[in-house]
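Possible regression after last week's pipeline update?

I re-ran a chain I had predicted before the update to compare outputs. Posting the input and the new output here so someone can diff against the archived version. Not blocking, just want to make sure nothing changed silently.
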Amino acid sequence: MREGESKRRAIYRVAVIGGILITAAIITLYTPWLRLFDLREIVVRGNCHISTEEIKYLAGFRMGGSLLRTPVSRALKALVGLPWVKAASIQRVYPHRLEIVIQERTPIAVVSDPAKGDSLLIIGEGGVIVKQTSDAAPTTLLARGVNLTGDAPGARLVDERVVVALECIYRKGLSEGPFHLIDFSDPSSVTLHGEDELKVVLGPVDGIGPRIDALAALLLTIDLPEYRSIDLRFGGEAILVPRKVVNR
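New output (post-update):
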């Protein structure tokens, strides 16, 4: 009898404790006046081109609401829809804070605005238009002969091969320096253009990455202003045409 009573008492204790925990959870989640985990602070990090106020507004969090029931998934969906946003994360920091971390796209090139000849569209990582502007840095690489899904922020480059090429050129540090234009008008013969009519033939846009790598390595070994053109269409061998030297 005593063993049976002990089991019943143990079961009773477990039931009571479980009931208390469930009740506390329900009260915490659904009782607005109990401010154990209410949202009091929102911290935004990593943003440069997007204002903190805009991020907070789009996230849609309500100050004073329950931190436990904060609609994080819905906020993330809204934030990653911004053209500048490459990735975003949101973390609950108990008892009262939310931290939003934004990873913005890096601008890699510009294209002429097809709707407005005097303005440019800034292309970010992933081939997404992040901004329309009439004031781009003079060292920003201009891409010609590309197709876009639209002319407003959020539109993107149609050809993924062009995106790969522009990202590779940016990573190799070639988008800011001797070159100011890359022409994709002929996909079988992509060309880079620099000062003093310098021309680099990169060849087909398909599989262009290794040829861009080869160009970056070559520029470490030559004095570029001494050459008029470089042809990289023929595998690992570059054909360099020097500028004519005028004898006086």
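Follow-up from reviewer: compared with the archived run. The mean pLDDT is 87. Marking as no regression found.
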